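Notes from the pairing session

We agreed to fold both candidates in a single pass and log them together. This is the raw record for the first candidate, unedited. Please don't reformat it; downstream parsing expects exactly this layout.

Candidate A
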Amino acid sequence: MLSGPLAEGVVHGLAHVTGGGIPGNLPRVLPEGLGAVVDRSAWEVPAVFRTLQEAGGVDRAEMDRVFNMGIGMIVVVDASDAAAVADAAAAGGVDSWTIGTIESGRGVAWR
């Protein structure tokens, strides 16, 4: 049985960030006419990705396209529910960050 934000219906979308990274996966859960603005400074990219980028001379856009950069799942909720969802994640032992906003448009823009 579901409990917390999922049971309460506050989750509008879940994007499992796999191959294709955030730009390849987040738009799939957004309705037509909506895009995302993602704030790169909202979380610390794990050292393994920084090392791969630096050692391989890989462009940041390619890193974003190929890897999840430390974000494995994105939960889309109303801004007014973000704190409650973060609290529920923390109660379950899961780190979370508010990484951006949903706006008119399409795809993912980086801030």
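Candidate B (folded immediately after A)
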Amino acid sequence: MSRVGRTPVVIPKGVEIDIKGSNVLVKGPKGEMQRTFPAAMTIVVENGQVIVQRPSDESGHRSLHGMTRTLISNMVLGVSTGFERILEVNGVGYRAEVQGKDLVLHVGYSHPVVIEPPKGISFDWDARSRQIKVMGYDKELVGQMAANIRQVRPPEPYKGKGIKYLEEKIRRKAGKAGKV
């Protein structure tokens, strides 16, 4: 049984939390986030920590308890330090570049693919290591943008060409057998 919900969320210096009923507003140096949580969960700030309490030990309340605590923790971590997701571009002639705020991908299509970042997201391209860095304070949005970039040209199993997450392993397949 998980005990994630019982762990308090420590509030670092420079982060302010405002709780009004089930609405939580978190402000920090990287930005501000607001989210509405289920009314069943009780959220309080005590001694520089956020504590989430559940009304009963029902299955639904237990799962909401852990989820609420994790979402608040991600909000606090995001506005204080931020999140990043790294993608790797593999393939001959495949490359990316940052033009202004936009990410431009050259990945084997007849045209470059331009990806515009939403508010709170920024891109970085390292040509040496061929890595795209997606950075932001909203963990959900950073993960979604990274998934959208990967979807432009997912890695293929024969040569491994495409855009993949840095930690992702591509299962390679053998090609056609040659004539004897």
